[in-house]
Structure formats: structure tokens, C-alpha cells
Fold:
Amino acid sequence: SGHSEEENVTFYSQDMNQGMQERMRLETGLRHALGHGQLLLHYQPKFALASGRIIGAEALVRWHHPERGMIPPAEFIPLAEATGLVVQVGEWVLEAACAQAQSWKQAGLPPIRLAVNVSAREFTSALPGRVSETLARYGLEPSWLELEITESTLMHNIDRVIGIMDRITALGVALSLDDFGTGYSSLSYLKRFPIDTLKIDRSFTTGIPSDSNDCAIASTIISIAQQLKHKVIAEGVETVEQLAFLKSSGCDEVQGYLFSRPLPAAEFERALRENWGL
Ligand code: C2E
Ligand code: CA
Ligand code: CA
Ligand code: CA
Structure:
């Protein structure tokens, strides 16, 4: 029934070719995008629960494709990670975030922390120097910057990774552990990482308050963070029930659609002014 073996082979290789062609188109397109101003950053506010103030923002990259419109990072970051192009994307993102911070600083906006996502492949011994050089070039205090890294970054050579982390935190740049609880990092290593903030992954936030496992995981992460003297932020907060649970569990900061989607720079600036009563 159906196709013969031979036909199936042809179908599969055609599918594969199409997949590869699409990947190659994306890769060529992304290289081009980097050099032609097609990447941009949106900023999602982070709120301190105690004060209700916006104390930072996560910079999230977008690709404005001339024909295909706005391409979300989920469609090109994994490919960029596979090809190594993510290193150049990361350089662009750090540069753009610092340029934006400088302009907000010069406009007299309150000092906030801009968080930049850093993937494992960018987390090399060249990173601390690049961060320090970029901050200096834009005349920015290190307190303007935060790097979000995921557990997968910590899986490779631990001692080497800790060395890089130490050099970054020595600059005064904060480090947060993104998507916490979704990877495999061992709790025994957690105490060795010079981390400022643990970030509860959206997959746990989503289940609050109806899923008792997600509630247990979220409050456990909060208590681990408290005992290790780290701050803790929950991402993906969409409902007032989630907010209430997180607040009563002692979470420090929140981020999510309940407060704001990631915003273009000008809109973020307006939200920041309004939130601070400026
Ligand atoms: P992430 O670091 O976990 O970022 C959070 C993602 O959740 C963002 O998606 C954000 O828009 C989305 N989000 C925030 N609040 C909510 C909410 O309340 N509900 C829901 N459903 N979603 C929410 P985005 O911008 O599409 O980014 C996706 C992923 O792409 C990021 O996940 C991050 O891993 C990666 N990414 C984005 N920008 C960069 C970058 O500059 N460099 C690197 N290496 N990765 C990046
Ligand atoms: Ca992140
Ligand atoms: Ca995250
Ligand atoms: Ca996440």
C-alpha cells in the first residue's frame, strides 16, 4: 500500500533538500540582515514587586525581513546557534543594547538594567573583554547591563565557565540564570556560580495556580534563590492569580504580558517615564 521503497526515498530526500535549502536561505539572509540594519531590539520591562517600579528590561532581538516581515527569534536563533552565526548576532545585540542604554542615560531616564541574552557559543574567554570594552566605549556604568545565560551554557567545562563568569561579575555586570529548572544543572554546582538572579521559566509560571507541581517548583526555586542570596524573577506572568502567588511566595521581580509585551524602544521609553512618574 502507498509508495514503493524507492518512491519513499525520493520523497524523503526532496523534503530534506527543501529543509536544507530553507536553512541555507535563512543563513544567507541572516548574514545579510546583520550588515544591512534588518535586526532590531524590543524591550520587555522587568518590574520590582516591592515598589511596582520598572527596574530593567530584557532586550529581545527581532529580524525585520524586507519580504517576510517580522521574524521572531525562535525562527532564527536556533539556526544561528547551529551555524555559529549567533556570535555575530550576539555582538550586534550587545552593541545595540549599549547604544540604547547610552541614549536613555543621556536623556536623563532612571538608571535601569538592560538584560541581553547570551547563548552558550558566545560564552567564551573573549566575552568579558568585549563587554568591558563596549561599556567603556558608550560611557556606561556596568550597572546598566545584565547578561542572561541558560543552564546549557553551564554544562560545558564548569571550571572554565566559572572563570568567565567571575571575570564578568568582577566588572560589575550582573548575571542571571535564564529558564531556570528546565535544564540539567546540578544543585551542587549552583552554589559555585556567581549569579545575581535566578529566572523562573515560563513553563512553570504558566501552571500557576492550578497546577500544584508548577506551584511547588516555583516556590522551591524562590526559596533556593533566597537561601543562596540570589534575586529571583518570574518570566511569562500573564494573570493576576500568577502575580498574587508569586508575590506571596516572595518573588522579587516579574516580567510578562500581564504588565507588558516586549516593546519597540520608543514605546518602552514612554512606559518607563510613565511608570516612574516622569
Ligand atoms: P527567553 O530568553 O526565554 O525570552 C522570553 C520569551 O518569552 C520572549 O520571546 C518573550 O517575548 C516571551 N514572553 C515574555 N512574556 C511572556 C508572556 O507573558 N507570555 C508568553 N507567552 N510569552 C512571553 P521572544 O522574544 O520570541 O524570544 C524567544 C527566545 O529567543 C528567547 O527566550 C531567547 O532564548 C531567544 N532570544 C531572543 N533574543 C535573543 C538574543 O538577542 N540572543 C540570543 N542568544 N537569544 C535570544
Ligand atoms: Ca532571556
Ligand atoms: Ca527566559
Ligand atoms: Ca523561557
Remarks:
- Residues 179, 201-202, 235 surround calcium ion (ligand 4) (CB under 6 Å).
- Residues 209 and 245 are 7 Å apart (CA to CA).
- The chain has a mean pLDDT of 93.
